[in-house]
């Protein structure tokens, strides 16, 4: 009994510790707070000093809706001089966070640029995207109203909009929860469509096989009929000619 219990416990532990890997790319201009946004989520840390990011990746074991996710986050360069690897990072990811600073009006104008980068790589596939306005804690420096942000979100067809502060941790985790949920839902939809297409293809193949089988049976029956006619002709040729025989041979010539 103890052995069975230990084996069962081991199996439950193994299933519970299975992790799904998710790759997320964070995009945005320089100094909008991408790195602090990521660090607050992965390490609960915040740095007042600004250091330009070239390219970095961080990992976070994240439990969401009773499941564990191994999230790999791509922190991309914001400055034009350092963003040589941005497209490569985008191509490897399943979901995207486009960040702009509420204190920098120019950064909100660059949303379309990053959305276009995603579109250029994934073409007609609609990828999960979340829009994030950062630095909510800098009240006196905020240059973009929430209504403007909502209008921008609507115009760019990115309905999932969040306002965050890496310094105060406000709304950081909900961003990742939402994006992970979107990625999982997209995978389920693709899986369902794939299964539906496979059923349709299998049905078409089955009909095609049935038609081929019917054609083969018809060909075999035709060959069999021809063979029977040839045998009958051969037997008639070997018999004495009579009126009925001659009539039969004339009849067979019609085939």
From TrEMBL:
The keyword Hydrolase does not apply. Residues 220-229 have a biased composition (Low complexity). Gene3D superfamilies: P-loop containing nucleotide triphosphate hydrolases. Signal peptide: none annotated. One of its GO terms (cellular component) is membrane. GO terms for biological process: signal transduction. The keyword GTP-binding applies. Pfam families: Ras. InterPro entries: P-loop_NTPase, Small_GTP-bd, Small_GTPase, Small_GTPase_Ras-type. Residues 220-243 are annotated as: Disordered. Residues 230-240 have a biased composition (Basic and acidic residues). Keywords: GTP-binding, Nucleotide-binding. One of its GO terms (molecular function) is GTP binding. This is Small GTPase.
């Amino acid at each position: 009994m103890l052995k069975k219990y230990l084996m069962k416990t081991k199996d439950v532990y193994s299933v519970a510790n299975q992790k799904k890997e998710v790759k997320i790319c964070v995009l945005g201009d320089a100094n909008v707070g991408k790195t602090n946004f990521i660090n607050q989520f992965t390490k609960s840390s915040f740095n007042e000093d600004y250091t330009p990011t070239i390219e970095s990746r961080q990992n976070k074991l994240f439990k969401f809706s009773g499941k564990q996710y191994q999230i790999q986050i791509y922190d991309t360069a914001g400055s034009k001089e350092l963003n040589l690897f941005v497209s490569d990072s985008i191509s490897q990811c399943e979901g995207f966070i486009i960040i702009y600073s509420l204190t920098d009006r120019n950064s909100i104008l660059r949303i379309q640029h990053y959305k276009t980068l995603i579109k250029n790589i994934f073409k007609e596939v609609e990828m999960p995207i979340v829009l994030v306005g950062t630095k909510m804690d800098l009240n006196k420096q905020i240059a973009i109203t929430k209504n403007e942000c909502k209008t921008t979100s609507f115009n760019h067809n990115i309905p999932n909009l969040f306002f965050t502060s890496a310094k105060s941790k406000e709304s950081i985790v909900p961003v990742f929860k939402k994006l992970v949920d979107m990625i999982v839902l997209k995978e389920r939809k693709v899986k369902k469509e794939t299964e539906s297409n496979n059923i349709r293809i299998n049905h078409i193949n089955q009909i095609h096989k049935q038609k081929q089988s019917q054609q083969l049976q018809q060909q075999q029956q035709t060959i069999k009929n021809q063979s029977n006619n040839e045998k009958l002709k051969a037997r008639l040729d070997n018999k004495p000619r009579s009126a009925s025989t001659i009539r039969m041979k004339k009849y067979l010539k019609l085939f």
